[in-house]
Fold:
Amino acid sequence: MAKKIKQIAIYGKGGIGKSTTTSNLSAALSEMGLKVMQFGCDPKSDSTNTLRDGKFIPTVLDTLREKSAVKAQEVIFEGFNGIYCVEAGGPAPGVGCAGRGIITAVEIFKQQKVFENLDLDVVIYDVLGDVVCGGFAVPIREGIAEHVFTVSSSDFMSIYASNNLFKGISKYSASGGALLGGVIANSIGSPYSKEIIDDFAEKTKTHIIEYIPRSITVTQSELQGKTTIEAAPASAQADVYRALARKIAAHTDSKTPTPLDIMALREWAAFWADNLLALEQGKIVSPGDRI
Ligand code: ADP
Ligand code: MG
Structure:
């Protein structure tokens, strides 16, 4: 019997740290001896940069614009530790659907049986934002990814994007769509950020799979065009990514989250706004206290 390929999608607001986290995760999984493909699904097309010394690769859509048919080998590039790197790409600025690259790339790979032929263990889709456009929902809707994780900080707009993702997952969960593996809490370190993201996870019936601190080592590594796993393998931050990789490698049980409706999300945010103020003024001592 063919082995089961673990397919994971990582979603989150733009700029929240999806590609940084995904690339370090891929690097850490490859260190564990797994064969990994990282599939960038952001029109920015920079998902795999730090796996390839900061270099951009031709995208599936760019390649398709040059010729009518694309062979998978033309759009797969080898990165750090043998990781296969792909960028779906985006439309020419101002025209077309940004999700098209994902749909097209996935179709090409399916037809050419790429995942089976490369004997992959893990495929990670690094996908932009909340699920508003059909193209971005493809890995969830089509059940291409089995497990979805969201990268979120404790900032409201990031939580808002994750909550929208949860709505998308709930919508497709009954028809064979992907389910939620959990939240990767990124850039944790500012006061009360942990409490806020923990509370959001509890309210939406999910959990935090790993807390990733904001770290200068990540910045330094990125400036060298590398993941932290490659540039600073002995650092504490690299060990955090390795811990995340072990958990994701062992993860099997994803669930349907319970997103908050917009009123409930507003009320939730208002509670935290009041509490942060009360904490600062010394009216309460613990961030979860009622005022
Ligand atoms: P996204 O893929 O979600 O758009 P990126 O992964 O490109 O976001 O990250 C945006 C910026 O934030 C990058 O410059 C990256 O180095 C930085 N960043 C992400 N996570 C961390 C972290 N834990 N510590 C320090 N910087 C981070
Ligand atoms: Mg990115």
Observations:
- The CA atoms of residues 91 and 98 lie 6 Å apart.
- The chain has a mean pLDDT of 92.
